[in-house]
Structures are given as structure tokens and as C-alpha cells.
Amino acid sequence: FGLSSSHAAATLAIILVGYKAEIIDENILNGTIILILCTCVIASFATQNAARKIATTEINIDSDLTDTAERILVPISNPVRIEQLINFSILIKDPKSPEPLYPLTVVADDEKATENLASINTFMEKAKIHASSSNHIARVISRIDTNIADGIARTAKELMITKIILGWHGRLTTIDFFFGTLLENVLAKTGQMIIVTRIIKPLNYVENIHVLIPPAAELELGFAEWVKTIFTLSKQTNSKIFFWGYDQTHIQIKEVIKKNKFEAEYVFRTAKCVTMLKTISGKFLPNDLLVIINARRNSLSYNRQVYQIPGTIEEQFVDSNSIIIYPEQETVYKEVIDLQD
């Protein structure tokens, strides 16, 4: 129905021929234009909804984790956030992974690029020193690119990165409104898991991790990986996990836990998207951590209500830690990695 119900080019051609031949009058011409508008709009929504349903029924939910080596990219633009981002990256890093952390700084390609790069390299060494103090290796990367999003995307591709850690940049500016935020641009240019952090208090004091999950989150390719990340963070902070979402998603989370033998104290709570954030806020303690599982636009688990939640975090959770996870949406350079093995 969605693919066949719209009327546009042929209908417009026929009606114009009839109008010029004076077979039909202006009223029928105007009515045809309205018909074209209505059918095209209805067909677009019908096709999108049908495609989502077909994808949902045909997709095979895989609760196994891939064997791809974990590589974490940490873009840094503000020297103040260096320790914060490195500390968080260490907490979620798989203890078995031999790969180093990859702190990255991107300098705009202009007449002062070389000068700016030299000054930035000085404070980027702090990231390397801070990681070393925690017995972790950091490979510092500095590059010149047309813009920050392109620099992050190209680096992620070159190094076969699996996770990208970004800092929270707060409210939108006028430039962000017209050209999109850094996060939106990175999401559009990459398929890796992206974690946006808003760390206000030390994570060592976290007592509970509240995970807000949209419907159909289990259908995403990176489902098992973000579940693993949550359990790794829980183990490192010795905290309890509360999964807030739908029963079908909870069933698949239990499968992931069972297959991968994750160990932590966890509880499942059923909640709908409309009231999920309000329900969590009533159970939220000062030292708790809020985790929002979000999704890129047009993905299977994209939910408009959940997608808009980050804009209200600063108002509802003023002094609380929160992170937003955008799961992987595609297999990241798996063919290249297999060839190298």
C-alpha cells in the first residue's frame, strides 16, 4: 500500500494535459494537486512503518559478543575534561583488552593550525601521563582536519575504533541550531558505539546505575555490547543495576547475561517511555548514575521521546552523573579486521 498509493509525476502530467486541452477546469486541477500532496504524505508514513515492522520480524537477535578487539577513542577539546574522560574510559574498558586508549585532539585546518597543534600537544601529554598512572597505556593522537566531526570519523575508521567517548557540551548555541551539534555530526558520520558523558561527581561513589531503555533496543546490532559495558561499569564501581524498559527487552538482556556469564546485582523494572524518566527520578539517589540508551534517527529502536530526553537532563538531574549511549549501528570494518587476523 505504501509503495503504490502515492500519485505524483504521471498524475500531474495527465491533469496538465487535460487542463490545457480545456477538458477539465481549474477546480479539478486544484483538487488533483491536493490529492498528490495527501497521497505522497500518507505513502511515506505507511512505507516507513511497514518497513520497520518487516525489519523487526526478519531480524535475528544475537546475544553473543563479537571477537573484535575493543578500541576506545577519546576526543578531547577541553583540557579540564582530560582526567574525567580518561577515568571513565578506564572504567568501561574490558580488563582483558590489550589495546591502549586513544586520546584524540582535532585542530581546524587554517593558517594557525600548526601553531595550535603544537600548543595542544602539550596538554594532551597529560592524558598519556594520567592513563599511565592507572597502569593503562594511552596512544595520543593529534590531527588537522576540516572540522572536528570529520577528524573523529576519519580517525575512528583508520584505527578501527569500536567505542567513542565524548564529553557533554551542554546547551545548544546558534551555530549548533543551524549546522547541527558535534554529536549529531559524529552520529551521522560513524557507526560505532558512542558514549556521551556528563560526570559531575566522582564515579567511585556511585551506588546504583539506572538504565533507561527504549522499546526494540534488543534489535540493534550493538545491543549485547552496551549490556556488557553496563556490567563492566557496575563491576568497577561495585554498584547495583536497575534496568527500566519493556518486558521483551528484559528477556533479551537476561539472555545476554546468561550467555556471557556477567556477574552483578541487577533488577528489572517495567516502565513506558512516556513516564520512564519521571519514574526513575522518584527512585534516584544523589550518588546514582543515569544511563540513557538512545538511538540514531531512522534506526529500529529510535524513539522520539527518548531521543529528546538529553535536552531535559540538566533540568531534572541537576547535580547527578549521567551518560548517553548510542549503540553500534553497523559492523565496523569487520572484513578488514578478519583479513589482518
How would you concisely characterize the structure shown here?
Helix content is 46%, strand content 16%.
Give an account of the 3D structure.
- There is one protein chain.
- The chain has helices spanning 9-20, 26-58, 82-92, 113-133, 148-158, 174-179, 182-189, 223-237, 247-260, 273-283, 304-307, 313-316, 334-340, and strands at residues 72-75, 101-108, 141-145, 163-167, 193-198, 208-212, 240-245, 266-270, 289-293, 321-326.
- It is 46% helix and 16% strand.
- The model is unreliable at 173-179 and 331-341 (pLDDT under 50).
- Helix 1 (9-20) packs antiparallel against helix 2 (26-58), helix 3 (82-92) crosses helix 4 and helix 5 (148-158) runs parallel beside helix 7.
- By secondary structure, the chain is α/β, with parallel strands linked by helices.
- It contains 13 helices and ten strands.
Radius of gyration: 24 Å
- Biggest sheet strand order reads 3-2-1-4-5-10-9-6-7-8
How many strand elements?
Answer: 10
For the record, give the distance between the C-alpha atoms at the N and C termini, rounded to a whole number: 47 Å
| SSE ordering | HHEHEHEHEHHEEHEHEHEHHEH
Q: State the helicity in percent bands.
A: 40-55%
Unreliable spans: 173-179, 331-341
Q: What's the story with the biggest beta sheet?
A: 10 strands, mixed
Shape: globular
